[in-house]
Amino acid sequence: MAESFLVDIAENVFRKLGSLALEEFSFAWALRSDLEKIKKILVVIKAVLFDAEQHQLRSQQIEVWLGMLKDVLYDAEDVVDEFECEALRRKVVESGNTTRKVRRFFSTSNPLAFRFTMGHKLKKIRERVAEIAALKSDFGLTERIFDRHVIHREREMTHSFVDASNVIGRDEDKENIIEMLLQSFDSENVSIIPVVGIGGLGKTTLAKLMFNDQRVISHFEQKLWVCVSEVIEIEKVIIKILSSASPGQKYMDLELDQLQKALRQALDGRKYLLILDDVWITTRSSRVASIMGTDSAYDLNDLPYQHCLSLFFRSAFKGEQEKQNPNLIRIGEEIVRKCKGIPLAVITLATLLYSVTDERDWEVIRDNEIWKLEQKGNDILPALRLSYEQLPSHLKRCFAYCSVFPKDYIFYDLELVYIWMAHGLVQSCNENQELEDVGFRYFKELCSRCFFQDFREDAGDVQCKMHDLMHDLASSVTQNESSAIISGSQQVSKNVRHLSFLYPELLPEDLPIPFQNLDHVRTISFLNERREGISSEVFIDACFLRFQCLRVADLAYSKFELLPRSIGNLKHLKYLSLWNNFFLKRLPNSICKLQSLQALILGGCDELEELPRDIKYMVNLRFLWITTKQKYLPTGGLGCLKSLRFLFITGCENLEYLFGDLHGLTNLRRLFIGGCDSLISLPQSIKFLTTLKILNIANCENLDLAIEEVEDNQHRSPFSLQKLEIINIPKLLGFPTWLIRGSINSLKVLKITNCDNLRELPEPLQNIATLEELLIYGCPMLNNERLQNISGMHLNSCPHLILIFYFIF
């Protein structure tokens, strides 16, 4: 199971071996012989891979062989990527507008040495691949062409708020717990009620039902919900409780006794309900629950079979579809019995089979060998493992990578897509298809199969979480590839590819000895639920110098003032996040050597004095998020980033003007401008971002959106937006027509909120027949009659339109 996405890795390497960049180098450097031999061997290996994956669960030798193959394929990918990095470097150096100084900046120290080194690396890969291929005959593997039929479908997103009408079979449990809660508060003592049950029974769902019940809401003065990690740290738990009770307050620097005092002050004399979610010791162990609880623990039992059936068929069938095929009903009943009353297992398999009408697909699930494997106490649920095995290979890799993130992490779709892209997990078979669109489709497919949950939308971005058991599943399939680091003395596999430092505040000043021999690391992450970042520049510098194959470096919440210059040596790096580094003052100009970089996150870097001067040479950048203290962004910098698709400019309190050559961003799809209180106006060139689809403008106190109409001598077309969102722009009096003039046949979503002085909406608004959602909120100066006219017109011409008007006076 650990190597179940090897087919995708092998195909990816095979594809890269035929890339144009490598073909040119192989011809010039006489490397064609080694390349052709590697490709021929890979063809032979691929032919038996499906058979090997089917047998690995029962053969340790095959599992070891697959592990060896995976390592050499990853190493081959590193070598091929190095050729592509060199090709990209040469493209920048040889571009017509570069000076001799720029050519020196990007030059390698010794081209002949590089050629010799790469030739030697390629030869080593060829020898290793041949050696591993020779071993396959020992296992009696047969060549198989296996094309698993996968239904690609998108289900409607769900939300973290639990609708009671969508929960089946837990009414009695909900009533019992509410009764225990209300009765327990007759006394003056603190009452603790543990809810106990195995993973996947729906303890969190049940708690949400109770939490949102009107009787509970009216009974308690304050309700708090806190997620607790597996390793309980009392200080961190108290900080979470305080943050829930008093949002916006800072508690990170307080000692334990100060935290306890603050907690007493926040809750003293008040009738409060506190939910501690994901406390594993209370949910998995009745004995420990009895120690912690002051009341009897509530044992959550398996969901009864009939309720499981209802849940399964409601999730697997469209409308009346279930009545049309009695054979599917019979097979479904047998599948549900195998789920043993665990709702998570039921709904995961149901969503896997959603809209599938071929009986053979249902029988594959019912008769799978996974059901026959011995199940121990902490093993992955067979239904979850089966759901994973039925994923197409490319989605397996995307899901498995999520084990790098800590449990209870809040995922953002855009962030996840760019991290997948950084590792080459997103592939487009059509050159006209944007990688981002493919990545979003991957994300939606995983969501539709219940690999993510608790969805909500924030400014157009989708947030979600992953169930703990799903996270365990992801970890199990990347057991030797990813490692969660708890201490600097921890031993890790020499072939580990992804490192997550869960406690960066406890790391030593320098890179510990166990990590100094790691040559293949592709990810370093310091993400954790406590938002504690790395503070040692020496440690980061050592990581940059040691881990030369890095694709992703997530340094969110780090606490250093200067990013080490060694960042410029990471030629493979494609994703760099310095999100919310509140101390960072400067970036080294060497960062501009990162031609492979696709995503650079500088949002929340409030002390960043300026962007690097040579940022225009980051030619591969597709996503840029900046916060800076600059008053203006100079022309000839950001405007040269023609690969840019997403640009977020937020929290730039001193920024008065954007760069004038904004129109140079010829592939920009989304522009987000927010929290820039000094921004006065937008440049004329913004109107001619012809590829722009989403425009968000929010919380800019002095921004005047009126742009003087100037004749365009170049006869450029205005942008045609699909979504326009304007929030809290006090100087917006009349709605500028330039914002929607070119979008009459494209605009689907228009949101205008908290614009206190807005008095008029544009006339063209009545002519937009493509609108699907129109939200106007907190605009007290708007004419009520005008809104009613627009409402009546759109309800008649746009049958699918959602209209939301809020009048606040």
TrEMBL record:
Domain Disease resistance protein winged helix intervals: 404-474
Top-level taxon: Eukaryota
Domain Disease resistance N-terminal: 11-97
Coiled-coil region: none
Key words of the record: ATP-binding, Nucleotide-binding, Plant defense, Repeat
Listed SUPFAM superfamilies: L domain-like, P-loop containing nucleoside triphosphate hydrolases
UniProt-listed InterPro entries: LRR_dom_sf, LRR_R13L4/SHOC2-like, NB-ARC, P-loop_NTPase, RX-like_CC, Rx_N, WH-like_DNA-bd_sf, WHD_DRP
Chain ranges of the NB-ARC domain: 171-280
Record has ATP-binding as a keyword: yes
The keyword NAD is annotated on this UniProt entry: no
Pfam families noted in UniProt: LRR_14, NB-ARC, Rx_N, WHD_DRP
Residue ranges occupied by any Disease resistance R13L4/SHOC-2-like LRR domain in the UniProt entry: 544-775
Protein name, UniProt field: Disease resistance protein RGA3
Organism: Hevea brasiliensis
